[in-house]
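Notes from hallway chat w/ T.B., transcribed later so I don't forget. T.B. wanted the structure written out for a chain they're using in a teaching module, and asked if we could keep both sequence and structure tokens in one place. Agreed to drop them here.
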Amino acid sequence: MARRPVEDSEHRIVSDKFGCSKEKIREKGRKNNKARSLAIYLARNLSGATCSEFGDFFDGVSGAAITVRYNKITKEIAGNKRLKRKAGKIKARIINI
């Protein structure tokens, strides 16, 4: 897959699906922020950017923090059919932009 930057439109789609603001997705320091976790998961899967680049985009968190969040949401998606379906629908919308 070709590398592409993290785009604000992707976060708009995620925020619309979760009924929250784009700022909430980018805001660090909030526990159990599913919208943020899913945005990190989708951005990492679709963009090919480095975790450090994601960290800068997601309010200056470390690349390691991005990896931890990505691994956690990946396990959660694998065990939760509803979340997996939601991630799939959001991914399809992003790809069709």
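Follow-up for T.B.: Residues 8-95 form a domain with the Chromosomal Replication Initiator Protein Dnaa; Chain: A; fold (CATH 1.10.1750.10). Might be a good example for the class.
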